[in-house]
Amino acid sequence: MAIEKKAKVEVEGKKAKVADPIAASIDIATQEMILRAQKLGIDTVFDRAEAMKPCNIGNQGTCCKNCAMGPCRLPLPKAGIEGEDTRKGLCGATANTIAARNFARMVAAGAAAHSDHGRCVAEVFMSAARKETEAYQIKDTEKLLAVAPHLGVETTVEKDGQVLDRNIDEIALEVAEKALNEWGKPEGELLYLKRAPEPLYEKWKKNGVLPRNIDREIVDIMHRTHMGVDQDYKNIVKQCTRASLADGWGGSMLATDLQDILFGTPYPLQSEANLGVLKKDQVNIVIHGHEPVLSEMIVATAQKPEMIEYAKSKGAKGIQLSGICCTANEILQRHGVPLCGTFLQQELAIITGAVEAMVVDVQCIFQNLANVAKCFHTKVITTHPISRMEQSNVEHIEFDEHHAIEDAERIVRIAIDNFQNRGADVIIPTQKNVQIAGFGVESVQYHLGGTFRGTYYTLNDNIINGRLRGIAGVVGCNNARTRHNEGHIQIVKELIKNDVIVLTTGCNGIACAMEGLLTPDTAAVFCGPGLAEVCETVGIPPVLHLGSCVDNSRILLAATEVAKAGGLGKDISDLPAAGSAPEWMSEKAISIGQYFVSSGVYTVFGATFPTSGAPVFQKYLFEDLEKVYGGKWDFEPDPIKHAHKMIAHIDAKRKALGIDKARERVLMDMADRQKLEA
């Protein structure tokens, strides 16, 4: 469409309040595109955040709309809560009950989103194992053999007194069956729970929170938070723990493992990030969402010589793929496909005027993409049966693993054909940065293993001797109520300055890539001396990008390996480690936070927290949970204070382990080294 057909930023004939680009984002490319959108009269999420303020009571978590007698809104008294809290809804539900129910429903929705992603991958894995599709095969048999025992699948068979390797196809089929069974088996517990350190598993068992199956725990939350059911906030949080563990140690972990087996386990590779990866002389296809099953086929299709020749026949020099959100992270870590931007940049990619097609699957997709696309030539293509848009200019091509190649080819051809419809007014920001991504449990183990490749011993030793202060997992979304990327970057820079190595996923990983923090050279500029030395010696960035938001399971398993390697306690809660979601906005983040807390990790959220209107309930999350699981929630919107809360926790854990004093470095002679090797 011609660019003259603009979506005017007006309300009843008056200009609406718009965002200040510099106040909205720390990223120059984002600022440039916000300003361009405003000049074209196109509203973006940044403008809408200015025009629409959040509901204070909803923000505090004390608005209940779980029945038609409500919504019941329980604001905090002006003087705060002193003495007994007498606030009640029509049914008598207290602020604690209402906030706990709302919190639990966020956990349920987040766990459902991640675990349904895992189910989709498991179904495609089953099709591949049955050889029902030519599009998907088992790419990483080594990972298959490593995962199989955790699902109770034997990898060898005894025959005539000999132990023989089982057929890979048989193993794959049984793994598929066992994996899919985890969503709905009638009895037992999730099989992956025993991958956790034994003390942690026993803690879950003692407290009665072992998930039975993935779907059951989500349904349980929805039932108990129905009007007139569970009215004890502690009991509700107990079910939050079950459901979140079913996500982190179930659906998400299965998604990561099965994706690695199908598409290949990531290892470090080089790519780029930010809107500057778009190319003016090429067909630009942006892939956005969270499930990589179709995007894998689009990557393969876009690389076919016949497709590149077809693009050239339409006047383009080639095809440029890039991605937004976690589908982006999935295809980045396996193929080096560059990152176009974070969650808040999705509209801005189209506003460049250079995008032929934006292909979306599930989660974190703005409905306003269709409205922005009306102002340009961009085709918005939905691909998932549960994720469609009402606007008439959106095309739906439903993904089917049995016809995945044909679906991908159709999408790529639509994009190529659309290249000739591109307008002359194309502005692509020049900003982009190099990144090294694609880390995982296996590659972290290799790179930080030193002499002891294949174990986490050397990583632990560097924490014990003080070169590394500790480990931080910094993850999560962007939130338009905060300055885009500022919280992410300030927190990460403060952590690495204080010798804390950072593991990142999701939009935090993209933000760090845009800022140039995902290269080994970063260490000399931003890191404390200990972390800088480790990064220089090993040749890694101080911020290790582990993938998409379901890949937070990689952080859980890495923490488990650190605990198993010894010297830092026996459980995840003993480690000098902390978690953070600086700019969270998604219900998935609450589920992630809850399974990290329940796994023993001190977890700090920025931006906002949905329980501030119920101080007693919030105290339970922020203090009392630590006595149960070893981890607890915290909230700090100021990025520097946020980072130092994490550092203080790490220091406290170092002191508890008796490693808070600097160790003298000893120059080893040959005899010492020979003893070490022995």
Write up this protein:
This protein has a six-stranded parallel beta sheet with strand order 10-9-8-11-12-13. It has a six-stranded parallel beta sheet with strand order 17-16-15-18-19-20, with helices on both faces. Residues 1-13 have low confidence and may be disordered. The protein has four domains: 10-51, no CATH class; 95-263, Substrate Binding Domain Of Dnak, Chain:A, Domain 2 (Up-down Bundle); 275-421, Rossmann fold, CATH 3.40.50; 433-657, Rossmann fold, CATH 3.40.50.2030. The chain is globular. α5 (95-129) packs across α24 (587-598) and α6 (141-147) crosses α7. By secondary structure, the protein is of the alpha/beta class.
Short description:
The protein is built from 27 helices and 20 strands. It is α/β, with parallel strands linked by helices and 678 residues long.
